[in-house]
Specification:
Elements lengths: L8 H4 L12 H42 L2 E10 L8 H10 L4 E10 L12 H20 L1 H4 L2 H8 L1 H20 L1 H14 L4 H12 L23 E2 L8 E2 L5
Antiparallel strand pairs: 1-2, 3-4
Helix pairs in contact: 2-4, 6-7
Organism: Pomatostomus ruficeps (Chestnut-crowned babbler)
Subcellular location: Membrane
Membrane topology: Multi-pass membrane protein
């Protein structure tokens, strides 16, 4: 029977605990990357919706100001009355009477068929377009929890392979624990060689300028990232500026 060594505080941040409901640091990086991949789709969707609304407005203005309607109405009545009872009068009534006509004509036309017909997206269509993107963003946030089940599923179907993997990771942790001091010194040395950012320099200047801000602008341990407590100790080197908690010190 093998007893597992407890994790150090600075080693805890690189491990995922399945029982924790909060999103942990290794999972947060992948979740942010997935959300960043959704930003181009969101920008494209906003661009398409804005372009559709702009074109719909332009076409509506064109249709409103360019619409012309014509109305044409004519009326024609022709009546020839031949009076008399003679043979010639009867003959004229039979021949010229056929010319009697009467009609009314009314024509309405417009240029509506030649104008552009705007067909903008309705509110329901906008919702139908945004819902898949919202579901994709929720899936990016919730995918960390199904990913935790991968190791349980692998252990159920491939127990020997998963046992080999766990032993390899444990032996790797032991080797890292053996060289822990050397690895942390190298990491701190790399951080020290990097020039401080403008935000870090500004926070340090505010702390030195106004000591009462130290309660709000608390520093963190260089190794494990624990917030500042009275037990924290600064590095004795004046040019270092590193800050350590009591276990890391």
């Amino acid at each position: 029977k093998r007893t597992l060594l407890p994790l150090l505080r600075q080693e805890t941040s690189s491990f995922i605990f399945p029982c924790h409901l909060a999103v942990q640091r290794p999972e947060l990086k992948h979740m942010v990357l997935e959300l960043l991949r959704c930003i181009p789709l969101l920008l494209f969707l906003l661009f398409v919706c804005g372009l559709d609304h702009f074109i719909f407005s332009i076409l509506s203005i064109i249709q409103h100001h360019s619409f012309v309607q014509y109305s044409y109405q004519t009326s024609h009545h022709l009546t020839v009355n031949v009076m008399g009872t003679s043979l010639m009068a009867q003959l004229l009534r039979n021949t010229i009477g056929a010319l009697n006509t009467s009609f009314d004509n009314q024509v309405e036309t417009s240029n509506l068929a030649c104008l552009p017909q705007p067909s903008g997206m309705t509110r329901q269509q906008y919702l139908n377009t945004c819902l898949p993107l919202g579901a994709l963003a929720l899936l990016c946030l919730a995918q960390v929890y199904p990913f935790r089940l991968r190791r349980a599923i692998a252990a159920f179907y491939f127990p020997k392979r998963e046992k080999t993997r766990v032993l390899f990771l444990y032996n790797k942790l032991l080797r890292q624990r053996k060289n822990f001091l050397h690895l942390q010194r190298g990491r701190i040395a790399r951080q020290a060689r990097q020039s401080p950012t403008l935000g870090t320099w500004l926070l340090e200047w505010c702390r030195r300028r106004w000591p009462w801000l130290r309660r709000c602008l608390r520093r963190r341990c260089t190794l494990c990232g624990m917030p500042e407590t009275p037990q924290h100790r600064p590095c004795p080197s004046p040019d270092c500026g590193a800050f350590y908690c009591e276990p890391c010190w």
